[in-house]
């Protein structure tokens, strides 16, 4: 059995095997610059996995090419291993990248002088277009290299979105040149103290470029009108009282709000989103909109419409947490469900829905009562809980064509290091990635066997994963 995660749509085995050695070359049958870059990527990955220096050659037996196959769409691929060659083919470079992830998972996790790969034909396309993870860098700040590692790990499981929660009560993490106090003051704290941090615009561009090389779109979030204490402490004029609150290092929510009736608030938002849009090549900016307990209801509705208009004016589409469904949703805005039923109002207005149900997809929830990190307000989420649900049936009133995809958030109130990130993320994220990619009809018993065998691979990748007692780890 090939222990592939996510499970491909079609796998057909044949007889024989392909022998991979340090003499095996990579043949590129394309002049596309992205394909050439993917050949270099594969060479580097093989070097890491095997220690071999496998380079490009005209007669290489690992063949990368683009081909016109409408059935594969923009992200699908074919991977065919015969005794003579390994052929990876896709319509677009993104599909070829996902073919490479499957190929790398077929490789044995331990090194040898030669590696034997089974003859197999795989044809694969994703179920959902949105396959995302969210990393909260506001509650605790994580540097560029940590974010790049997270990108590499989620890309291995064919995820294509990273939502960065960059602003909250505890910290403002992205440089805005026209409002420098946001990072000078608002970026100086985090939960529990010990300083904070922020990304310069150049560092943010570095993250964006690295993500693009892994076919991941960065979705930046500026959480508004609540979760804004760091901004309010930086610029008193954004408060209705015009008095700056103290910086905040706790974990309570719902107490802060931008002045929704102040002209300066919308000038601020226009300039912040304008700068962010210029350095964000992706199509979306997340506007938050959650837990706005201190914003009057009518002010909230007015605010949500106006901030959507600002995002659209800067050439992007808005995404907001499910609460924005109670306001007017403009065409192109996406709603991200986490709790409640406001998604139903959003659906009635024609919005597509990203599924992030807290009781299934929140990676900051404890695995069980003894888990040293995490919270439990949405329940305890063991590895089976996070995998064993059907997206199209789980949310009342939603059908599959209403769902854009799945996103799995990691909030970081209790998460302080990359080791912590990995412990809370793995092995739950691979299962959620499979729900987003693989055809409907998952089976926990079958999946848990693949996951157990996959443990050696996560160990070889240096992932600090939780060894769940639900899984028989090899």
Walkthrough of the structure:
The protein has about 475 residues and is of the alpha/beta class. The chain has 15 helices and 16 strands. The strands form three sheets. An eight-stranded parallel β-barrel has the order 7-8-11-12-13-14-15-16, surrounded by seven helices. It has a six-stranded mixed β-sheet with strand order 1-6-4-5-3-2, with helices on one face. It has a two-stranded antiparallel ribbon with strand order 9-10. A hairpin with a 2-residue loop joins strand 9 (about 165-170) and strand 10 (about 170).
In a nutshell, what does this entry contain?
The chain contains 15 helices and 16 strands. The chain has helices at 33-50, 93-106, 144-155, 181-184, 201-213, 229-234, 263-278, 297-313, 342-348, 358-361, 383-387, 391-394, 418-425, 428-437, 444-460; strands at residues 10-20, 26-29, 62-66, 77-81, 86-90, 115-124, 130-136, 161-165, 167-168, 171-172, 217-224, 284-288, 317-321, 334-337, 353-355, 403-410.
């Amino acid at each position: 059995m090939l222990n592939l995660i996510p499970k491909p749509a079609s796998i057909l085995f044949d007889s024989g095997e392909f022998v991979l050695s340090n003499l095996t070359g990579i043949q590129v049958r394309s002049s596309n610059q992205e394909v050439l870059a993917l050949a270099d990527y594969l060479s580097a990955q093989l070097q890491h996995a095997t220690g071999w220096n496998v380079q490009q050659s005209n007669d290489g037996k690992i063949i990368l090419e683009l081909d016109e196959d409408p059935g594969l769409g923009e992200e699908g691929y074919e991977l065919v291993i015969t005794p003579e060659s390994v052929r990876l083919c896709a319509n677009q470079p993104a599909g070829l990248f996902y073919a490479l992830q499957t190929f790398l998972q077929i490789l044995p996790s331990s090194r040898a002088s030669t590696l034997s790969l089974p003859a197999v034909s795989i044809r694969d396309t994703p179920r959902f277009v949105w396959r995302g993870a969210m990393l909260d860098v506001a509650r605790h700040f994580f540097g560029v290299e940590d974010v790049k590692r997270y990108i590499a790990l989620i890309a291995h499981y064919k995820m294509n979105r990273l939502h960065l929660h960059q602003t909250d009560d505890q910290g403002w993490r992205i440089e805005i040149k026209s409002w420098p106090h946001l990072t000078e003051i608002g970026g100086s704290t985090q939960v529990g103290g010990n300083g904070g941090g922020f990304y310069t615009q150049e560092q943010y561009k570095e993250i964006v470029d690295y993500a693009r090389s892994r076919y991941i779109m960065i979705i930046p979030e500026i959480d508004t009108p609540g979760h804004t204490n760091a901004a309010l402490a930086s610029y008193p004029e954004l408060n209705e009282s015009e008095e700056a609150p103290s910086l905040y290092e706790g974990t309570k929510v719902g107490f802060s709000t931008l002045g929704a009736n102040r002209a300066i608030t919308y000038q601020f938002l226009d300039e912040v989103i304008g700068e962010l849009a210029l350095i964000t090549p992706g199509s979306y900016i997340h506007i938050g909109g959650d837990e706005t307990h201190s914003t009057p209801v009518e002010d909230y509705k007015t605010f949500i419409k106006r901030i959507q208009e600002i995002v659209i004016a800067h050439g992007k589409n808005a995404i907001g947490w499910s609460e924005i469904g109670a306001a007017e949703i403009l065409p192109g805005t996406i709603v991200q469900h986490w709790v409640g039923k406001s998604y139903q109002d959003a659906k009635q207005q024609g919005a597509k829905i990203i599924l992030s149900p807290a009781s299934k997809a929140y990676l900051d929830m404890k695995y069980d009562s003894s888990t040293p990190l995490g919270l439990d307000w949405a329940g305890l989420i063991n590895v089976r809980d996070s995998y064993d649900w059907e997206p199209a049936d789980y949310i009342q009133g939603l059908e599959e064509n209403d769902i854009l995809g799945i996103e799995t958030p990691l909030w970081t109130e209790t998460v302080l290091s990359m080791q912590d990130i990995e412990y809370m993320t793995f092995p739950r994220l691979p299962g959620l990635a499979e729900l987003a990619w693989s055809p409907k009809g998952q089976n926990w018993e079958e999946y848990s066997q693949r996951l157990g065998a996959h443990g050696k691979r996560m160990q070889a990748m240096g992932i600090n994963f939780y060894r769940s007692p639900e899984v028989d780890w090899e």
